UniProtKB/TrEMBL annotation:
Protein's organism: Streptomyces botrytidirepellens
Pfam family, one: Uma2
UniProt KW Cytoplasm keyword: no
Database matches in PANTHER family: SLL1072 PROTEIN (PTHR35400:SF3), SLR1083 PROTEIN (PTHR35400)
Lineage: Bacteria, Bacillati, Actinomycetota, Actinomycetes, Kitasatosporales
Name of the protein: Uma2 family endonuclease
Amino acid sequence: MSAAREYGLDEQYEWARPPQGGWTADDLDRLPNLPPHTELIDGSLVLVSPQTAFHMRALRLFEHALLDQVPDTLDVMREMTVKLDDKNRPEPDVLVLRAGADAGPLDTWYRPEDVVLAIEVVSADSKERDRKVKPPKYAGAGISHFWRVEEDGGLPVVYVYELDPAVKAYLPTGIYHSKLTLSVPFPIEIDLTSINRRP
């Protein structure tokens, strides 16, 4: 049996057809020829469009700023999936997670209980997912902090949310335009106007 047939791919087009009930989180590691940064949302594969310069600069800004400020008990990763459950394995743009969450160098995902902060940088094709679909899923999985980053005139605007554990929902705690200053999940200060500077 060919790999295409084994994984439900049409051999002529080599395109994935979902199995009955949809894909599972573990299928992301087994399906051949998936494009980079493919996510699983509600059992469906989500393919990511090419990213803008703003998106890539925002990822760089937050990754480097957080790495410079994160305590030794935490670590920062970008573009790694989080296995929320069997049908959901989204890929936040930047993650802050507990140090030691890696099970090994070949890991492809993290557990939600190891994630302290998930950051999504909104793109044209991800607005609905980043604003309405992913936040309730992250909150339901118990991820304590969530930031949504939007572009405004070439600069990032950061919408900050904190989990209310009693109802497993995010509450907004602030909107930041030029400077992000927070005390949780650890002391953070980021000059958002420096997005175009090289580290």
